[in-house]
Amino acid sequence: MPREDILRVVGLTKYFPVKKQSFFGGKLTLKAVDNVSITLKQGETLGIVGESGCGKSTLAKTIARLITTTNGKIYYKNNDITHASFKQLQPIRPSIQYVFQDPYESLNPRHTIQNILEEPFLIHTKLKFIERKEKVEDLLHKVGLPTDCLSKYPHEFSGGQRQRIGIARAIALEPDVLICDEPVSALDVSVQSQIINLLMDLQDELGLGIIFIAHDLAVVKHISDRIAVMYLGRIVETSTTEELFKQPQHPYTQLLMNAIPNPDPTKRRTKKTIKGELPSPINPPLGCNFQSRCKFETKQCETSDPNLSNRMSTSTHQSACHHTDLSTKEWESPWEF
């Protein structure tokens, strides 16, 4: 039986006003997220990947209703929560939780771990002290921390341990959706794998739907069922993880894939990097956003903005490129995935 979409985002747009450069200058806007549509099913992991400044975190915070939208719709279980008030969002908040990038900044340094993990139950439940303490101890067990740390403060823990505490707080009220905003980018490589494996174990145990944001395709590949590639505020390619790594269609995705380090020193490959700088989201180029950095650029790219659609035979694989046939024909995987 196919799983239903637990979260659906349609044409989401988020613009930020920019201060005028001069008194007579026109009104400027920064197009952080521009007409993005994604879906998430129960128990599924959607990876969102792209270089810094492409709008990943803004998209995540907008979906979680931490910031308001400029345009578009956000549906949770077919209920429109785009413009829901604070009171209307209160019963929904426990179901959509957020794991922040910096585990130290997201934890109150003046509170003990007991107070930090107890707070969700104080706000959203009427549990008694003994019941709350049992819940907190159970949370620590789930994330692999000893119960004797309850009286300690965040600064007494390592980065990986603090992120485990942040995850424990996020799953306290048994959410349906967990939005992870680059949860491993501030951690050592050895600790990254532990946190990713922890998230996968919690997903199996709790049936979580996870939106996992990162700038490293290798990390996203390990945890994701589907991947959406973002560039300059837009989704330029989306597919199942297997299809994406087998045959990436967008030139930007191919360049990101070429940037993945190869652990085998005996295999050498031609170094292909992304040329040029990321265009300004205040004044994005006409036509295709990637045209100034793409070797397949033509006059069509300068005048026509490609839509995200099925360019090849597979219905689950979509890309926003006028020259998918050229990019896929030239693509050669640098190694076996």
What do these coordinates show?
- The chain has helices spanning 56-63, 86-89, 113-124, 129-142, 159-170, 189-206, 217-223, 241-246, 251-258, 299-303, 324-330; strands spanning 5-18, 28-41, 45-49, 71-76, 79-80, 96-99, 177-181, 209-214, 226-231, 234-240, 318-319.
- It is of the alpha/beta class and 337 residues long.
- It has a seven-stranded mixed sheet, with helices on both faces. A four-stranded antiparallel sheet has the order 2-1-4-5.
- Helix 3 packs across helix 4 and helix 5 (159-170) runs parallel beside helix 6.
- The radius of gyration is 21 Å and the shape is globular.
- The two termini are 30 Å apart.
- The mean pLDDT is 88.
Write the layout of secondary structure elements.
Layout: E1 5-18, E2 28-41, E3 45-49, H1 56-63, E4 71-76, E5 79-80, H2 86-89, E6 96-99, H3 113-124, H4 129-142, H5 159-170, E7 177-181, H6 189-206, E8 209-214, H7 217-223, E9 226-231, E10 234-240, H8 241-246, H9 251-258, H10 299-303, E11 318-319, H11 324-330
Parallel strand pairs: 3-8, 3-9, 6-7, 7-8
Antiparallel strand pairs: 1-2, 1-4, 4-5, 9-10, 10-11
Helix pairs in contact: 3-4, 5-6
- Quaternary state of this entry equals single chain
Arrangement of strands in the largest sheet: 6-7-8-3-9-10-11
Provide the residue-averaged pLDDT.
88
Count of helical segments? 11
Amino- and carboxy-terminal Cα gap? 30 Å
Structure characteristics:
seven-stranded mixed beta sheet; 11 strands; alpha/beta; 337 residues
Structure summarized in a few sentences:
The chain has 337 residues and is α/β, with parallel strands linked by helices. The chain is built from eleven helices and eleven strands. It starts with a strand and ends in a 7-residue tail after the last helix.
